[in-house]
Design a protein that fits this description.
InterPro entries: Cas9, Cas9-BH, Cas9_PI, Cas9_REC, Cas9_RuvC, HNH_CAS9, HNH_nuc, RNaseH_sf. Keywords: Antiviral defense, DNA-binding, Endonuclease, Hydrolase, Magnesium, Manganese, Metal-binding, Nuclease, RNA-binding. The chain is of the alpha+beta class and about 1350 residues long. It is built from 56 helices and 35 strands. It has 8 domains: about 210 residues, 2-Layer Sandwich (Nucleotidyltransferase, domain 5), CATH 3.30.420; about 120 residues, no CATH class; about 150 residues, no CATH class; about 90 residues, no CATH class; about 210 residues, no CATH class; about 150 residues, no CATH class; about 110 residues, no CATH class; about 130 residues, no CATH class. Helix 49 runs antiparallel to helix 50. The longest helix has about 35 residues.
Length: about 1350
């Protein structure tokens, strides 16, 4: 083979890249004596959410420190006059008396701290005294109180000015009206029975909710009777009662089902069920918001505000200050503690007495750094209460939720900053006559209404989120090398709350923030997407739904669609199917109520023109003025980005034609979320007729996917992307790409693999690159849930027409048992329990004997969707063969299919398939078939294709292969895929991809525009007889396939199948793993006390804080590894380099190699210090075990070959197997469930597979002598032979593991990765695959470090003894 004629196949996954290099005859290329086929494995790309969370917390604490530093500067001169060392002593307050650095002993605050604490048991006592007592206080006392106020200043959820603020800030009546409007938008059904709050009694309801004399449970029960607006329909009333129940639970802080409240369909309801008072509630809400539409988001925000108001009223009742409320809690707690002590003393059962003592200790102080919450504390107390004179009093307090209140709880997060500021102002006003500096006015006069005094700004000022870190991008790059700051300055110099507007350019910072926040178009790489509630984007979504819609099986005429758009959608926010049907019948000449299909929701449109309707109320007919559309879009974009109404108001000033009324009304508008497409894509790109995509959607019946696939637009999109790709690096392209971190990581790995292949092939570009992307499974699949709900709804609506009541009963049983609705059962219920072709009843108890048939045979078209599959008896299926049902006169397909279609049980497409005769297909229908079979629209495929196309220009053809074609060949030729056995399946898929790509390219030259990236030639596909493009290969009668024009042999059946099988049975392929450093948390965030220093390996909180005094963190995380030689033992050892040492090492590296080695030695040194305690004296001595650094940086997953062991370094203590297990075709067949049943294999065959695995382990897997895994697998054979074939269950409870599951667990434990499996069924005490060395991995002097290129074709081997 000439090196300039080779093809590459890529099987792209989110954690793997399979690759294969072939010649034009589909033979694998050999390089360096190896078949060039293999797989690159890597860790899936992760989101930055966890890092972002840590960064946000660090920033918050840093800004708190900044505020407190400014406070200290204000007070320092006045504190120094009476007590020069007060602040110095304060800074030492957290230094232990046992610490040798301690300078000040005894009372830290005053001459006698005892007197101070007796007078003011808590800081709230001090704050209250400073507000209410008319006398001169010690300046140090004032400082302590103000310090506390500023440190814990409260939230900023309410924007009310301080002089207008009330702790009853929520207007329940007004909010209820808003909620009802929102509920109408997402509670829609066939009879338009949306849930509504009872606004007529809202004043009474709000008083009840805020009544602290009642328990939360009582308030919930009583409010529930009045919350929902009354309806006459009993079934609807029951539904509303369920919603009202969850609503009342939510706002009162009880555990609530938010999916029920917000009308969300989910099969993971646990994620939606939580308390708003939970410590992690805010994080849960952030996750939920991503899955909600705008009305649902707004409703959730209001519910959260109600909860905050109700909780705040419980903490700080109206009319009380925070300090008064907290003092009251303190006094009650003190009083109740005396009761509890009395109860403990009176308890005769010592276990119960101890239980009460322990409950209180865990409630107040915690156990293992975790405190009991109030509910658990109450529960534990009640469990240990012994009848006494005071038992009833304690129980009464518990039932009233008033027993032992605490000052500091997570619920304090609902306290707004205005309440703290009010106390600060009262302190200032009370003490300013003695200390005039306290009343210094705010230097920033513009904010005097928000913060009257200079000190007020330390509570009231918040750095706007759109400014970000208080450092410019340039300065951040210089100082730390980081690149996430975006602040723009006006002036240099120190920034304070009082000069913020002078130093920071808020507007430019906001504009930069906009550019950072806006995601990119999923089609045009560099273009910013539109807001989800943009006028243009909402128009696009409505048109897309209308163009997918069918009335009585036909698309709406363009004129009718446009009329519906103007007269329905532009007038009403919510359009139900009923509204549309009534409108079409009344206004559009429909004689009967039309049947509506084609929508994603059966009851209503998902999209609306809500923004258009809102803005029309403000701007009237001007909303349709073309000259002002860009300005309207800017307003919407700003409202989407800026929660801060002040900056939004400032931005609105940029639009000069807005008047004051319009600005005021716009200021109250809130928009949420981002779309997926840009303005340029929808209206900027033009076809040869100078029409945009949105104009096509307006003037035709085409939906977006159809329009963008038109040759003109496809070419314009590619041209735009290629223009952006020119001159940009891969990272610059990915930075602009709208795709997940997982996809970005995969694309980076693709480029590395391709470049490595090109290097191995002499630098010459591939002739063709065929790509196929393997989609990752959904984390939360919802299909089966939605299927069942869909069928249940249809059965309900056509109840009288379902002849077989047993079918309805079976569906109800499925629902009650929460059984999974598999394809067979789904088809059974959608066919009303009848054979699709003959109309005979199907016995559901024998459903396994029935078969799923393809309506249009696979020889004609490869369509595995449910629209092309039916459930029929085996005899009927076998008799049909490759014919279509319409060819058999005995079948009652049309009659039965028409009935199912009329009832909504099957789609129009499925009905058409049932009555289709392939011989009658016209050229336009044919084109649709072709596109469905050949066009792959995966986003990652498109990005890879665009990048490779630009990289190789005209040198390489980029061919997109549909994922299903690989599966088709595997199924046809018995190439079983078992992901648990080894990683070679990725490589085989890559080979099949390049084979299919090469075959399609040569077999269908006139159709290349469909599958070759960058080819836009008009094609003639009307003469095709088959639309299964691998049909000729599958036809066992066609031994040879030739090119009709040239006579070239494209496929020789016997040789081709033999080649497939040969590659399938390869015992060796190239396998490489990405080597990496680790980033993230340096350790677990919990700080353990010094008391556990002896039992836990603690990490100091700070370098100068010994763990035996201050305690420390646990679970050190290493960044990378190193290999050292222990001098005395003459052995090599792997050690971890902690993440907390990375900054220090990076700084040393800048100074040169010697400095780096010195710092690295000191980082490793503590691991080789041995402590020895003298038994007689108790004296502890330390001795350093000498070592030298051999390899200063070794990455995770580094490949090591040591004797007959081949493994990767999982850490300094873990080895990961790197040998691939290979099993026979027979074993793979037995492991495949469908083949097992088809070939009637037995339990003995599973025993044979176990024996084959054992033989392979004995021969190649010496690594598994660790923990005696090999020995245990032999000893457990008898146990295995006695297992059942499959798992045995009692309901959902596993009674006994089966052989099939056990074999899969063994395979996973032997797999060449980090997986460990608990083989409890074989009585393994240690998980299989857990190759752990607690004292560290020891390497022999002959151990080899194998450094591999991305494909593994190039490698460098280094033996330790040679270093």
């Amino acid at each position: 083979m000439e090196n300039n004629r080779y093809n590459v196949g890529l099987d792209i996954g989110t954690s793997s890249i399979g690759f294969a290099v072939t010649d034009e005859q589909d033979e694998l290329v050999q390089v360096k004596g190896k078949n060039y086929i293999g797989v690159r494995l890597f860790k899936e790309g992760q989101t930055a959410s966890e890092r972002r969370s840590f960064r946000t917390t660090r920033r918050r604490l840093k800004r708190r420190k900044w505020r407190l530093g400014l406070l200290e500067e204000i007070f320092a001169p006045y504190l120094a006059q009476g007590d020069p060392y007060f602040l110095a002593r304060m800074k030492e307050s957290n230094i232990s008396p046992r610490d040798e650095r301690k300078k000040y002993y005894g009372s830290l605050l005053f001459s006698d701290d005892t007197v101070f604490y007796d007078k003011y048991p808590t800081v709230y006592h001090l704050r209250h005294a400073l507000m209410t007592e008319d006398r001169k206080f010690d300046i140090r006392e004032i400082y302590l109180a103000v310090h506390h106020i500023i440190k814990y200043r409260g939230n900023f959820l309410i924007n009310t000015l301080i002089n207008e603020f009330s702790s009853k800030a929520v207007d329940f009546k007004k909010d209820a009206d808003i909620l009802n409007d929102l509920f109408e938008q997402f509670y829609i059904s066939d009879i338009n029975d949306s849930f509504q709050l009872n606004t007529a009694d809202m004043n009474e309801i709000s008083e009840l909710l805020l009544d602290n004399s009642k328990t939360r449970l009582d308030r919930q029960r009583e409010s529930l009777k009045k919350l929902a607006k009354k309806v006459d329909d009993i079934s609807v009333a029951k539904k509303h009662q369920k919603i009202a129940t969850e609503f009342s639970k939510a706002i009162l802080g009880n555990k609530a089902k938010f999916d029920v409240i917000l009308n969300v369909t989910t099969d993971s309801s646990n994620d939606w069920s939580f308390k708003l008072e939970d410590e992690d509630a805010d994080e849960k809400i952030v996750v939920l918001l991503e899955e909600l539409n705008t009305p649902q988001q707004e409703a959730l925000n209001i519910i959260h505000q109600w909860y905050s108001q109700i909780s705040l009223n419980g903490i700080v009742p109206d009319g009380k200050s925070i300090s008064e409320a907290m003092i009251s809690s303190y006094e009650l707690h003190k009083e109740h503690l005396a009761l509890l002590k009395q109860q403990i003393n009176n308890t005769k059962d010592k276990k119960k007495a101890h239980g009460l003592h322990e409950a209180y200790n865990e409630y107040v102080h915690g156990n293992n750094n975790k405190k009991l919450n109030q509910a658990d504390f109450y529960s534990k107390v009640k469990q240990n209460l012994e009848s006494s004179l005071i038992t009833d009093e304690i129980l009464e307090l518990i039932n009233a939720e008033n027993f032992m209140p605490k000052q500091r709880t997570s619920a304090n997060g609902v306290i707004p900053h205005q309440l703290h500021q009010q106390e600060l102002d009262r302190i200032i006003q009370n003490q300013a006559k003695y200390y005039p500096f306290l009343a210094e006015t705010n230097p920033n006069e513009k904010r005097s209404k928000v913060a009257k005094y200079k000190l007020d700004e330390l509570v009231a000022f918040r750095v706007p989120y759109y400014v970000g870190p208080l450092i410019t991008a340039t300065d951040q790059k210089k100082t730390s090398g980081k690149e996430f700051a975006w602040m723009v300055r006006k002036q240099p110099g120190r920034i304070t709350p009082w000069n913020f507007d002078e130093k920071v350019n808020k507007m430019e910072s906001a504009n930069t923030f906009i550019r950072r926040m806006t995601t990119k178009d999923s089609y045009l790489i560099a273009e910013d997407v539109l807001p989800d509630e943009s006028l243009l984007y909402q128009k696009f979504k409505v048109l897309n739904e209308l163009n997918n819609l069918r009335a009585d099986g036909r698309k709406l005429k363009v004129s009718v669609k446009q009329k519906v758009f103007k007269e329905l959608f532009q007038q009403q926010k919510t359009i139900t199917i009923v509204k549309l049907q009534n409108y079409l019948k009344a206004e559009c000449s429909f004689l009967t109520t039309p049947e509506i299909s084609g929508l994603s929701k059966p009851e209503h449109f998902v999209s609306s023109l809500a923004t258009y309707i809102d803005l029309k109320k403000i701007f009237g007919e001007d909303i349709d003025n073309p000259a002002r559309q860009n300005d309207f879009e800017r307003m919407i974009e700003w409202a989407t980005i800026f929660e801060d109404k002040n900056i939004y108001s400032e931005k609105l000033n940029e639009i000069k034609w807005l008047n004051d009324r319009q600005k005021k009304e716009l200021k109250n508008k809130n928009y949420h979320g981002w779309g997926k497409l840009s303005a340029k894509l929808l209206k900027g790109l033009r076809d040869s007729d100078e029409c945009s995509i949105i104009e096509h959607m307006w003037n035709t019946q085409q939906n977006f996917m159809q329009v963008q696939a038109e040759e003109d637009f496809a070419q314009r999109i590619q041209e735009e992307n290629n223009q952006h790709l020119k001159g940009n690096t891969l990272e610059e392209v990915l930075a602009d790409a709208y795709t997940s971190p997982q996809n970005k990581k995969a694309i980076r790995q693709v480029v590395k693999v391709i470049e490595d292949i090109q290097k191995a092939m002499g630098g010459i570009a591939p002739q063709k690159i065929s790509i196929e992307f393997t989609r990752a499974p959904e984390e939360k699949p919802r299909r089966s849930v939605e299927r069942q709900q869909q069928i249940e709804k249809i059965y309900k609506s056509v109840a009288n027409e379902v002849e077989n009541a047993g079918v309805k009963d079976e569906l109800q049983r499925f629902s009650d048992r929460k059984q999974t609705l598999t394809d067979k059962y789904f088809l059974y219920f959608t066919q009303l329990g009848k054979d699709m072709y003959t109309g005979k009843s199907i016995n559901i108890d024998q459903i396994g004997n029935y078969q799923i048939d393809h309506i249009l045979p696979q020889a004609f078209i490869k369509d595995d969707s449910l629209d092309n599959r039916v459930l029929v008896s085996a005899a009927v299926n076998n008799g049909k063969s490759d014919n279509v049902p319409t060819k058999n006169d005995r079948y009652k397909v049309r009659e039965h299919g028409q009935r199912l279609y009329d009832q909504g049980l099957i789609s129009k497409r499925k009905f058409n398939n049932l009555i289709t005769d392939p011989d009658s297909i016209n050229k336009f229908t044919a084109r649709g078939f072709v596109k469905r079979q050949l066009v792959e629209t995966s986003q990652v495929i498109r990005l890879v294709a665009e990048f490779l196309y630009n990289k190789y220009q005209s040198k390489s053809e980029i061919i997109e292969v549909r994922a299903k074609m690989n599966s088709q060949l595997r199924k046809d030729f018995g190439l079983i895929k078992n992901r648990n056995v080894n990683d070679y399946h990725h490589a085989l898929d890559a080979y099949l991809t390049t084979f299919i790509g090469n075959y399609l390219y040569r077999r269908y030259p006139k159709l290349r525009a469909y599958f070759t990236y960058g080819c836009f030639k008009k094609v003639d596909d009307s003469q095709l007889k088959y639309f299964n493009f691998l049909h000729d290969i599958e036809d066992d009668k066609k031994k040879i396939i030739k090119d009709n024009d040239t006579g070239e042999i494209l496929w020789h059946r016997d040789e081709g199948i033999a080649r497939f099988k040969r590659i399938y049975n390869f015992k060796y392929m190239l396998v490489t793993h990405e080597v990496l450093t680790r980033q993230g948390a340096m350790f677990k965030q919990t700080v353990y006390s010094a008391a556990v220093a002896g039992s836990k390996k603690l990490i100091p909180v700070k370098e100068d804080r010994p763990i035996d005094i201050y305690g420390g963190y646990t679970n050190n995380n290493d960044a990378f590894l190193a290999i050292v030689k222990v001098t005395k033992k003459k052995q090599y050892m792997v050690v971890g380099i902690p993440q907390r040492a990375v900054v220090k090492l990076n700084d040393a590296a800048k100074q040169g190699s010697k400095a780096y080695q010195k710092v690295l030695y000191n980082v490793i040194k503590p691991q080789f210090i041995k402590k020895k305690k003298d038994r007689k004296t108790g004296k502890i001595t330390q001795k350093l075990e000498n070592f030298e650094i051999v390899v200063s940086k070794t990455l995770y997953r580094q490949l090591i070959i040591d004797g007959d062991q081949k493994y990767m370094l999982g850490s300094s203590a873990y080895k990961y197997n790197a040998k691939q297990l290979v099993l026979s075709e027979y074993a793979l067949e037995v492991l495949d469930r469908s083949i097992f049943e088809k070939k009637e294999y037995t339990t003995v065959d599973l025993d044979n597979v176990y024996d084959e695995i054992l033989a392979q382990v004995d021969k190649y897997f010496s690594l598994y002598d660790k923990n005696k895994f090999r020995q245990k697998l032999h000893e457990s054979r008898k146990i295995f032979t006695e297992l059942p074939i499959n798992n045995l269950f009692s309901g959902t409870k596993l009674l006994k593991s089966g052989k099939r599951e056990t074999l899969n667990e063994i395979l996973e434990g032997l797999h060449a990765n980090a997986t460990k499996k608990d083989l409890k069924s074989l009585k393994f005490s240690t998980p299989l695959g857990m190759i752990q060395y607690p004292s560290g991995i020891i390497l022999s002097e002959n151990a080899i470090l194998c450094y591999q290129s991305p494909t593994g074709i190039f490698e460098r081997r280094v033996t330790l003894k040679d270093l």
